[in-house]
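Q: Here's a chain of 132 amino acids. Please give me its 3D structure as tokens.
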Amino acid sequence: MFAVVKVGGRQYRVSPGDDFVVEKLNAEPGSSLQLPVLLWSDESGVKVGRPLVEGVTMPAQVVGDVKGDKIDVFRYQPKKRYRKKTGHRQTYTRIKIMGNGEATSSVATAVATAATTAETAQTAENQAQNEE
């Protein structure tokens, strides 16, 4: 089972138990988040949202803030005796996906129900067109 979620303007492919780093969020360590799902896939099939899968969110917990690798910036102008070296370390937020078997099955049930409802509506439209 996996899902594609949107966090901070970027998309990530996640599974239950994944631990990954996103751009810094204003959230306290230990707090929980509900991430919007763009695509959902499990053994019953794939559900693609337009733009989001309705009624489905991925539970996650903020582990804490971490710093990325240092980036060195060196400015240099030849023949002018100008050299300046600075650095930068970006701050990121580490997130752990909290979905487990129970949460996954309830979400999968919601997705299956939505798919069945859509198929039923489409079948009713097809029958109405055939009767005309």
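Q: Can you summarize the key feature?
A: Helices lie at 101-131.
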